[in-house]
Amino acid sequence: MPENDDVKRRLPEAAVRAAGVKTKRETVDHAHQELERKRRAEELISLFGTIEYDVSYDKKRNEGAPDEYFEQKGAEGMLTYLEKEIRRYKKQGREEGREEGREEGQLEKGISVALAMLGNGEPEDKILLYTGFTPEQLAEIREGRLRGE
Known about the structure:
Radius of gyration: 30 Å
Helix content: over 70%
Order of helices and strands: HHHHH
Strand content: under 5%
Structural class: mainly alpha
């Protein structure tokens, strides 16, 4: 199989030339960096359209203007910046989700307390005082229309 030997010898040499490096090891490192960059870019591209634009965003407030940052750092800098922004938005989303969960939990607990107090024949004024509900909300609880879902 002399042809296979020739391919095995010439392929790494061609890869070294194509990558613009001097050694096979540098070629492998270069290929790995390119694959990682491509993976990160594809991941970011998949997020386009899933993140809402914040019209109140002040780019001067956020570690310098992105345009200047991109000019200085190039495509790799842009990917790094976007990844950082995505992490920030994910963190903000998690915090908002936790807050919503806490509010829903408090509502559910209040409904449970109100239902227990109604079941024990407690006066409406006392239920409103202890739960913080409005008379309208208590009426909805009685009718089964207000639930902590």
